[in-house]
Amino acid sequence: MSRPTDPAVEDASRVAGRLQEIVRGHRLSPSQRRIVRYLLERPREAVFLTGNDIAEAVGISQPSVTRFAFALGFSGFPEFRDHLRAALRDGRQAEPPGLNPVQAMVDSEVRNLELLRDGLADTGRLAEVGAALAASRPLPVVGLRVSAPLAHLFGYLAAKAHPDVRVVDAPGSVLADRLSRAADAGATWVLAFGLPRHPRELLEGLVWARGAGLRVALVTDQSVGALVEQADAVLVAPVSSHFAFDSQAAPTVLCAALVHSMIGALPVREQASIEHFEDGAARRRLFLSD
Q1: Which of 241, 261, 256, 232 lies closest to 20, judged by CA?
Q2: Nearest Cα to 24, choosing from 260, 207, 254, 192?
Q3: pTM over 0.90
Q4: Where is the HTH rpiR-type domain (predicted)?
Q5: Which of 97, 174, 202, 221 is exposed most, by the fewest CB atoms within 10 A?
Q6: Does residue 131 sit in the same domain as residue 72?
Q7: DSSP per-residue string spanning the chain
Q8: CATH of the domain at 141
Q9: How many domains would you assign to the chain?
């Protein structure tokens, strides 16, 4: 049963999405991240605020707001705000003719995949994270609640070549214990999936991981926020909120791309284990297509 569409909620979602698109890939200072967080918490108001409004609310100077706009490639804060307002005009354009409501929801996921594609034009960051994960022995992979299936997907695929992948989907003391044991065993990185709704338990786990000496690679849907502040490397993929529950097409593709990048960074002998598995699977006729 589809949910009724609230135009105000749709407008807020469009503005938040445009803001996340603007800041994606930019390295922001702590005060600039506070600005983004403030705007994401009130996207319906964001298109009407002045630079002075934001400076007063966030507790920074008005020139700092101007520098924030400069850092994102705009000539000043008014141009940045106009770019956010454009999201409202774009969103109110008619959907392609002939799409039923379910097709329109799928179309929103197509746009998310296009955003992910455009964000991966430079694969340098993806390659860096893949190489770091490949070198971590063991490699703990964390996903709680709705993110657990994606963590297990990454773990299942990565274990075809990586010799020691440890998926953790339990919060609290279990998560802390397993991260500590991984660090004691030689792990240098932990990969975490943090998709909405973002569990407080994951934040606590990332804080614990850093305290144990692990560096954090985070796959998430936002480039700012409490989880991002605990991460050493962040890979962003948008999710769609147009279904009864969030849809994760772009994060799933990013997960597969990260596995691909990690395997490419492994020693040749470990990459060869994939071929060994395929040979064995064919001999044992594990799959119907063999």
Answers
A1: 241
A2: 254
A3: no
A4: 15-91
A5: 97
A6: no
A7: -PPPP-HHHHHHHHHHHHHHHHHTT----HHHHHHHHHHHH-HHHHTT--HHHHHHHHTS-HHHHHHHHHHTT-SSHHHHHHHHHHHHHHHTSPPPTT--HHHHHHHHHHHHHHHHHHHTSS-HHHHHHHHHHHH-SSEEEEE-GGGHHHHHHHHHHHTTT-S-EEEE---HHHHHHHHHHHHHTT--EEEEEE-SS--HHHHHHHHHHHHTT-EEEEEES-SSSHHHHT-SEEEE---B-SSSS-B-HHHHHHHHHHHHHHHHHS-HHHHHHHHHHHHHHHHHT-STT-
A8: 3.40.50.10490
A9: 2
pLDDT tens for each residue of 109-145 = 888 898 888 888 889 999 999 999 999 999 999 999 9
The tokens describing 62, both together, are 């008005």
Residue 91: predicted pLDDT:
53
78 & 131 share domain: no
**Site of tokens 């297990």:** 152
At residue 162, φ and ψ (nearest 5 deg) are -70, 130
Gap between the Cα atoms of 111 and 141, Å rounded:
28
**CB 137 within 8 Å of CB 187:** yes
Domain range spanning residue 77? 7-93
Q: What is the pLDDT of residues 216-232, one digit of tens each?
A: 999 998 777 789 889 99
Could you tell me the pLDDT band of residue 248, with boundaries at 50, 70 and 90? very high
| 176 and 272, same domain (yes or no) | yes
Domain boundary among 70, 93, 116: 93
Does 2 map to a domain?
no
- Please report, for the domain that includes residue 35, its CATH number: 1.10.10.10
SS3 annotation, 85-118:
HHHHHHHCCCCCCCCCHHHHHHHHHHHHHHHHHH
Per-residue pLDDT for 3 more than 50?
no
